[in-house]
Specification:
The protein is mainly beta. It has two helices and twelve strands, in the order E-E-E-E-H-E-E-E-E-H-E-E-E-E. The two termini are 27 Å apart.
């Protein structure tokens, strides 16, 4: 069985939960996707299913040869599977893969924030606001030790590019599925901006209570 699907973030909304409280949900367009390639342990060394999603304006020669008569699919992503016996190229995968109450993991690319300082990027407190300090309010402070080690250590938290990174949000509950419109409502927020690409897969671990 294919464990996940490709989709895009439509936006956020709210629903009334069973206890009458308002719950924030994210609306996701999940699929429909087509199986474009099947990889087996005998040939590629692992079992996986490649799905295609969306419509591209044009394809390269290599993409055309790969997709053949399947159409101009914009996004191709792989999902590892235990077995590929029941899957064949051209199969359709849609939101009916999920049902209300399922726990899913959602992978997306976070919003890019550009170049950011240490206060915004890492939550530093900055320097003192008084006692002769005039331009150190949002400065990082010392970045290195003395003679030993005599250099700035790798991985030190400093100013730099913030966001635009792959983020996995785990343990989100499926509130509702709408197969007619290929919509999936999941609990809480998911990474990325509106219309951002998402990979939604069934969680393999139980949600913490």
């Amino acid at each position: 069985m294919i464990p996940g699907i490709i989709g895009k973030k439509i936006g956020m909304s709210q629903v009334f939960g069973e206890n009458g409280k308002i719950e924030a949900v994210t609306v996701i367009e999940a699929g429909p996707c087509l199986v474009t390639q099947i990889k087996t342990a005998e040939k590629e060394g692992y079992n996986a299913v490649q799905l295609g999603y969306g419509t591209a304006k044009k394809l390269s020669k290599g993409e055309q040869g790969h997709l053949k008569e399947l159409g101009k699919l914009r996004e191709l992503r792989e999902f590892r599977v235990a077995s590929t016996a029941e899957t064949k190229v051209g199969d359709k995968v849609d939101v009916s893969l999920f049902k209300t109450g399922d726990i899913v993991n959602v992978i997306g690319v976070s919003k890019g924030k550009g170049f950011a300082g240490v206060v915004k990027r890492h939550g530093f407190h900055g320097g003192p606001k008084t006692h002769g300090q005039t331009d150190r309010h949002r400065a990082p402070g010392a970045i290195g030790a003395t003679t030993t080690p005599g250099r700035v250590l790798k991985g030190l938290r400093m100013a730099g590019h913030m966001g635009h990174e792959q983020v996995t949000q785990k343990g989100l509950k499926v509130y509702k599925t709408d197969p007619e419109h290929n919509l999936l409502l999941v609990q809480g927020a998911v990474p990325g901006a509106k219309n951002g690409l998402l990979l939604i897969s069934k969680a393999t671990k139980a949600k913490r209570k």
